[in-house]
Amino acid sequence: MSLPNNIKSRKDFRKRSSFFGRFFKKSREMRLSRLSYIQHHRQKRIKLLFNYVVSLGIVVFLFGALFALIVFAWTTRDLPDPNKLQERSVKQSTTIYDREGKTILYQLHGDVNRKLIKLEELPKYMINATITAEDREFYQHKGFSIRGIIRSFISNIFSDTRIGGSTITQQFVKNAILTTEKTYTRKLKEVILAYRIENKFSKDEILQMYFNEIPYGSVVYGIEAASESYLGKSAKDLSLAQAAVLAAMPQRPTYFSPYGTNIDKLMERQRYILNEMVDLGYITEQEAETAKAEKIEFRPRSEKMLAPHFVMYVRELLAEQFGERYAEEAGLKVTTTLEKNYQEAAEKAIADHIESNRTKYNANNASLIALDTKTGQIMAMVGSADYFNEEIDGQVNVALRPRQPGSSFKPLAYATAFNNGYTADTILFDVETTFKTDTADYAPKNYDLKEHGPVTMKKALAGSLNIPAVKTLYLAGVDRVLDFAESMGYSTLRDRSRFGLSLVLGGGEVKLLEHTAGYATFAREGVYQKPLAILKIEDPDGKILYEYKEDENKGQEVVKPEPIRILNDILSDNSARAYIFGEKNYLTLSNRQVAAKTGTTNDYRDAWTMGYTPSLATGVWVGNNDNSEMKRGADGSVVAAPIWNQFMNSVLSGKPAESFNPPPENTSTKPVLRGALAGLQPVKIDRLTGKLATELTPADQISEKIFTQFHCILYYVNKDDPQGPSPVDPFADPQYASWEDGVQAWVKRQGYSQSQETPPTEYDDLHTSANKPTLVMVSPANGATINSKNLIVNIAASAPRGVKKAEFFLDNKPIGTTTSDPWTLSTQLSNIESGIHTLSVKISDDVGNSETKSLELNFLL
Q1: Which residues lie below 8 Å from residue 239, measured CB to CB, with a gap of 6+?
Q2: What are the Cα distances from residue 584, in Å, to 590, 634, 647, 662?
Q3: Contacts of 826 (CB under 8 A, 6+ apart)
Q4: Measured between alpha carbons, how far is 653 from 75 in angstroms, rounded to an integer?
Q5: Per-residue pLDDT tens for 49-81?
Q6: pLDDT averaged over the chain?
Q7: Long-range contacts from 251-255, C-beta under 8 angstroms, 24+ separation
Q8: What are the CA-CA distances from residue 36 to residues 40, 45, 50, 342 (Å)?
């Protein structure tokens, strides 16, 4: 092995190698020492940070615990003693008054109707039904359910639906000990007290207190009082079916009241509870089915109420706003909108006609709503012919129930059409027509089973013709009509998949209260106001909790006034409907203008009369609560209109008569929208242009011609833009072929043959306001004295097309003509006598556009 050139000997090599070895070793030791130092200090910093975080956490925890203890102590500082659970605050009656605040309609008694019963006396299924309905984990929790509270909290934040999270113990605390205010503080108190009660009492003791304290509506507290009040028996004698009914009530006592308007919902909840009891193993499926089949006989209500359906309606509003317990026990004074005289007149009108309707037409029930159109306030509400008559389900408020409106729905379709550009003069063919739909063909018939040929929309609506109404709905658009209805507060038409062209004939159910509010919108020329029932609410100390302000319910404009004025003009024109209803009918009032419309379903299950003056809207429904048919002929004009007429005449007697605003002028340029559709009617044509004559066309330029040309309206208009250009291809509309077939079939049945010549569709554009000449009388002046038979007349004349001649008349007799400028006449009069004479001048252009002016002269000869 050779050495490097710079190394002289091996000894020198070993020496140098030893030096470098020590150098590298020392360097390595220094690096390791530095790394150890860094790692040591890093671990030290981490340890210090960890100690700091732990210390801070302990401090935060201690402060949090202290804060929680303070909050807990503050929250529970005034909680009642669980040992005094049977002591209740003194309750005061809530009183409901009429609008004057003097007549008591109903009093929610402050004396609580409560009877105690021991738990062991109750049937086991009564207990199980209540646990099933209210708290299925009752025997597992310690007074509250974390899962239920979380579910309720999430629902209340993210949903409009309110889901309760209260256990039976919490419900007992809320109803027997605490208030029902909806605050988180009250909820926390409820949970704390429920926990304390669970630790002090057994589950059976809590159940017994619950069954003796829980409200079942009105003044009824406890299961024993509820059983006696509603079913006429002790709770220990309840059947399974009856037990499930009572178990259904505490969730919403007023809503589920057997004396309210939601008995069907009560029974629906009863069936739900029975099904759930089967799933939980409390009863067998056979026992559930037997219970469902049992007819529940509720005890007749003996309490006296004025305007009972209205009272129950107000009670529900109060319960929704304040809660069940507060509304019934807080001693409120409630002043409502009800006008006592109107209510009495409404009840009398129904009573005076119900027996006749029952005998002649098997119509056992009737309902009436009256609204002040200026404010939206409910002046009268009769929900049935007899609230206390169980044979007709009298406690059901039909004014709040969906029923088919028949033809009384038609005005909504026509109003929408007028808003879209159609006119009262629009021509529709009332002929047998097959309407094409996505499912099956639809061929409606008129009430009189006749065809009326070409009719205006005004005549069709006034006479309540069905076929033109269906055409109007198609032209207006089903969705547009439903949009219009929803903007006026109709709540029953939201599932649009249910509705087609039959909607206009009453194919969608509506509520009488909402329907009347819709007609009140017509009276207000397109401004919707929500119906109001309460004017003022005061607590026992006179503190006003709510008070109606005059500007509170100004309403919202849902459509411009002009189309509604057209509608009002039609519905108030008795002569327009006389061809169907006769001149003498129940749709007119003494010495005042009124708009009215009837409605009848095809199977005579519902009959309506809706009508209004500018100040009062009233709706009347007649039929049977069980939806059974009335006898044939029981249409709205026969069974409902007499009630409506009697009521309206009674309450409006002595009040100032009001009139509707006149409709706007029809300025459309389309003949089909002006009632001038060619057919058997003579068509006036301008001789010079060959176009349709106007009011400016000179009489000597007009000729009349008959064109036997008949086409459906879709031949002339685009249904979505009726005032726009005519369709290039009418067949593009899916209804055109079937509508046109109906028209042509009618033409053949009438024996007409289509004219080869097509009538004009445009109007005279020569004789226009723009082409009208201008005339100024220069001399003599009006009223001037003339002392000579030599008369000199000077005028200034001009015209866009040029002036062709000027004609002069004295007392309508020609005295001269000039044909050039200056347009001066100098003539010698003969046989003129002293006195006042009329001088007239008429100037004309080459096509007959003219202008005439006159003045008076005093001749002294």
Answers
A1: 291, 294
A2: 12, 18, 18, 24
A3: 790, 791, 792, 793
A4: 61
A5: 766 666 676 656 565 555 444 444 444 444 444
A6: 86
A7: 251/133, 251/134, 251/164, 252/319, 252/324, 253/215, 253/216, 253/217, 253/218, 253/324, 254/217, 254/315, 254/316, 254/319, 254/324, 254/327, 255/316, 255/319
A8: 6, 14, 21, 100
